[in-house]
Amino acid sequence: MTASAVARADTVVIPAPVADPLQGQGTGMCVAQALSQAPKSIDIISVQQKSAFNGILNDFMEAHVQDRKESALRTLFDLSNNNISGNKASLGDFTNAVSTCKLGGCNFIVNDDAVTSFGLRARGYLNVTPDLVAKKIHFAFYTDDAVSLTFYGNKGASYPVITREVVVGAPTWRVLNTVTFNQPGLYPLEILYMEVTEHAALELAYKVDPAFTDFECPASQDDCYPGPDQSREPLPSAPMAPTAPVAPTPVMPVVPTPPVPVIPGLPTFPMIP
User: What's the total number of domains in the chain?
Assistant: First the structure.
């Protein structure tokens, strides 16, 4: 399948959560990042296979348990290496979205760097409140290079939502898919991301709209956006706030909070009661 002819995925329906919904604001997402170097580098050939992407990235992150950088993300989900050379793809669709970060977004593990490859894993929970149940929620990424999103439900069931594997020659993508949650509660989620070289960007947004049409295409391709009856804004209007590993909150474009210090480690995941 060519980069300009990507089939849209079906809506993902998740029947049940792992726990009841919680009240209050969340504390952020657990994020781990590691450079593609010894003791394990990312196999650039294998990550071009959709079926292999998640396993390779998770194996890579576990191989770097001793040297990966771990933190809690508490800003809007807008990350960038702020490489402003060439087509400035690292700036993404949202600029100056986080007042405490740079123009293109908050820092990755490396910034202003056009040659260093790295991987990222973000884990947390989405608190699905009653008003979000049975709604068509469109999750949207602007990514350079590759990303996947997986939710988990009751009894450890996994629900892949998006996998945008590496495509040589088309590094920058806008990709969306729809999720419907049948019950309120806590749903674990995992985001896996890889930067190959040059520009790096990862923006996550959402939109609740039954009439909106998902799409997936290289960022340079305008003709696969929704038709004239819908907004041509390529992604929803703001990055989404992170979900929380301890006290989750619904994803909402809220006022950013300052980053918190590095945390000692990631929780066991998924956490099943």
Answer: 1
Within a domain: residue 273?
A: no
Is 39 among the domain residues? Answer: yes
Cα 68 to Cα 56, 119, 243, 266: the distances in Å are: 16, 10, 21, 11
| pLDDT tens per residue across span 50-101 | 999 999 999 999 999 999 999 988 888 999 999 888 888 888 888 888 888 9
pTM of the model: 0.83
CA gap 98, 3 in Å, rounded:
31
The alpha helices in 95-241, defined as continuous H runs, are none
Cβ neighbors of 25 (< 8 A, separation 6 or more) are 244, 247, 249
Contacts of 21 (CB under 8 A, 6+ apart): 127, 128, 129, 130, 184, 185, 186, 248
In three-state secondary structure terms, 155 is helix
